[in-house]
Prior knowledge:
Bound molecules: (2S)-2-hydroxybutanedioic acid
Mean pLDDT: 94
Order of helices and strands: HEHEHEHHEEEHEHEHEEHHEHHH
Oligomer: single chain
Amino acid sequence: MKLSKLLLGLMVGCAALAVNAQTVIKFSHVVAVDTPKGKASEFFAKKAAELTKGKVKVEVYANSALYKDKEEMEALQMGSVQMLAPSLAKFGPLGVKEFEAFDFPFIFDDTADLHKITQGPVGASLMAKLEPKGIKGLAYWDNGFKSFSANTPIKSAADMKGKKFRIQSSKVLEEEIRSVGGIPQVMAFSEVYQALQTGVVDGTENPISNFYTQKMHEVQKHLSLTNHGYLGYAVIVNKKFWDGLPADVRGQLEQAMTESTAYANKIAQEENDAALEGVKKSGKTTVYVPTKDERLALKKAMAPVHSKMADRVGKDTLQTIYKATGFDPNAL
Length: 332
Ligand code: LMR
């Protein structure tokens, strides 16, 4: 009698636990909270709690608090963290080199061009390539176009010659810097400020929202609004974790992601504009807007990157992008 009561009590206890069990999603990223990605991940956490009625708790870890660039990808594959939003450049080192197509200089004229790819069949087929790596791609989130900074003015390729530029770990970006005679230095995002401050590197490239929120304007005297290449994100999850979620919860999270993507893409430009205002107001960095001719000259100088690196990302991927956006490196 006593034993059966005990068993009954245990069963009730377990059922209560199962009902109350909350799934925790650790979402790690490397940028500041006050950026397009930082804000969109917080938005997702709120939406996920709302739509799953508290069944899922998303814990967001900003500013490399959990992992640096390369480590976070390994952590996702191992399941120590469930969700990330790495920049598209970060998939090359994982062996999915096609993602480096996004790193080609001047390949997208504007966000409308970019969306033809991220929101079209190429974007979907690139995401599918992550699955054999144990990763499921959920969405593309915008950030923006990159600008170059240094302690000396940058108006032309000649101004970059012999200077060390921090880049993300991408072979296409290495070639981009080499095309203008610079020296590429791959480095984790969290280390850039100090590297600029101590002179380990002379300059860097990033959208202004990253530049400003990492306080790079404190240690870079010049920022040239070159808009020479794109930086944005793929929101990804550990596939086994994702597939193991109850279907209704997964559906609610997909809905939360759809809404968060719309939000991310809506605020990206606004955040970059506000960051630029912040840089200007600080008075610490001189902001230069290249003339049409200067920008065209830079575009020409970097054009050989396209033929040199076509094999790395696959000629077909590249041609499909050219076709969609109308970019023709040979016409320069
Ligand atoms: C970088 O490393 O420069 C970027 O990937 C940072 C980010 O995630 O925006």
